[in-house]
């Protein structure tokens, strides 16, 4: 028997190794399960324990549905390449992947709207926090307008939506460079909002009289929001126009890696807002009193205690996100 180990892997083996489609397909599936599970827990807490479903809950539900739809379409897109190969499966994969961008952009936009709605609900308008409120209102409104407009432009980038992903010579589309620049603007906005929405509630936490353990748990949630913002910047750095060079057309690993980071960024953003509402459920499981462990007694900033009783700790719920694209 001849020894062929010294010859090394074949070109087909190398391509199969580079194009690790299973990683992104598995990640998409995991994100659907995680998002659905934690969204169900949040709705359970809000409906059965808090006895109130707010506007922020409905907005987050829309974001979760859009994100799940984007993950499913993304998984289908990569599965087509895995099953049919790059040449045979390219058109349908590109078409499916192009369509999935629409719900992805909407997911990010609605997730940030959910945070803004929560913040405006919990912090009463009569408090002397006008600049907090206006910063959130203006920045989130501009962000939502941009993402919604971008989704519309992307949908009709090639004229009719039926032409998305088409390679026909007679189909004229908006330049990929322009679309990539719009993606980058969206990711920069993601990072800015993620950090902004972490720093604003941090000022409330700093002035509160919570015990160290409670502050630590809240800090972890705020840190998750900051991580989402960092990931948004990483996506820009690793994008094709800024970092990766697709020399080998068979090597899809850079695209897979970027897709994974973008998906995790949005998942962390939605998960962060879901976790923020689960404090009453944790208290129920531990059979503890909410007032003794999570009630905020602020030294310099008055907080609507009725809202705190409904929502658990304001600083725990006060972080929400981020939304961002791919």
Automatic annotation (TrEMBL):
Membrane topology: Multi-pass membrane protein
One Gene Ontology term, aspect cellular component: membrane
Major subcellular site: membrane
TM regions (residue ranges): 24-45, 57-81, 101-122, 134-157, 185-206, 218-244, 256-278
Domain Rhodopsin: 41-283
Keyword Transmembrane helix appears in the UniProt entry: yes
InterPro entries: Rhodopsin_dom_fungi, SAT4-like
Domain of life: Eukaryota
Location of the protein in the cell: Membrane
Record bears the keyword Ribosomal protein: no
Family the UniProt entry places it in: Belongs to the SAT4 family.
PANTHER family: INTEGRAL MEMBRANE PROTEIN-RELATED, PTH11-LIKE INTEGRAL MEMBRANE PROTEIN (AFU_ORTHOLOGUE AFUA_5G11245)
Name of the featured protein: Rhodopsin domain-containing protein
Source organism of this protein record: Myriangium duriaei CBS 260.36
Upper lineage: Eukaryota, Fungi, Dikarya, Ascomycota, Pezizomycotina
């Amino acid at each position: 028997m001849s020894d062929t180990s010294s010859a090394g892997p074949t070109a087909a083996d190398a391509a199969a190794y580079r194009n690790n489609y299973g990683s992104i397909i598995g990640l998409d599936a995991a994100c659907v399960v995680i998002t659905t599970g934690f969204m169900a827990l949040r709705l359970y807490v809000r409906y059965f324990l808090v006895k109130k479903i707010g506007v922020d809950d409905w907005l987050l539900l829309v974001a979760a549905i859009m994100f799940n739809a984007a993950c499913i379409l993304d998984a289908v897109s990569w599965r087509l390449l895995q099953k049919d190969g790059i040449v045979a499966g390219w058109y349908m994969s590109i078409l499916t992947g192009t369509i999935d961008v629409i719900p992805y952009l909407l997911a990010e936009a609605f997730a940030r709207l959910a945070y803004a709605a929560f913040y405006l609900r919990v912090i009463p308008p009569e408090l002397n926090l006008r600049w907090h409120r206006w910063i959130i209102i203006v920045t989130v409104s501009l962000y939502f307008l941009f993402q919604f407009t971008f989704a519309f432009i992307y949908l009709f980038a090639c004229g009719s939506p039926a032409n998305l992903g088409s390679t026909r010579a007679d189909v004229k589309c908006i330049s990929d460079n322009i679309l990539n620049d719009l993606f980058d603007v969206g990711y920069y906005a993601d990072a800015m909002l993620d950090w902004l929405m972490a720093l604003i509630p941090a000022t409330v936490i700093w002035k509160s009289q919570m015990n160290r353990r409670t502050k630590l748990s809240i800090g972890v949630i705020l840190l998750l929001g900051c991580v989402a913002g960092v990931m948004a910047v990483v996506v820009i750095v690793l994008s094709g126009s800024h970092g990766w060079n697709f020399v080998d057309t068979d090597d899809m690993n850079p695209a897979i890696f970027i897709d994974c980071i973008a998906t995790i960024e949005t998942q962390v953003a939605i998960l962060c807002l879901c976790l923020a509402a689960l404090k009453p459920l944790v208290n129920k499981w531990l059979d503890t009193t909410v007032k003794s462990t999570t009630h905020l007694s602020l030294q310099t900033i008055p907080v609507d205690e009725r809202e705190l009783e409904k929502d658990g700790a304001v600083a725990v719920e006060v972080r929400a996100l981020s939304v961002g694209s791919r």
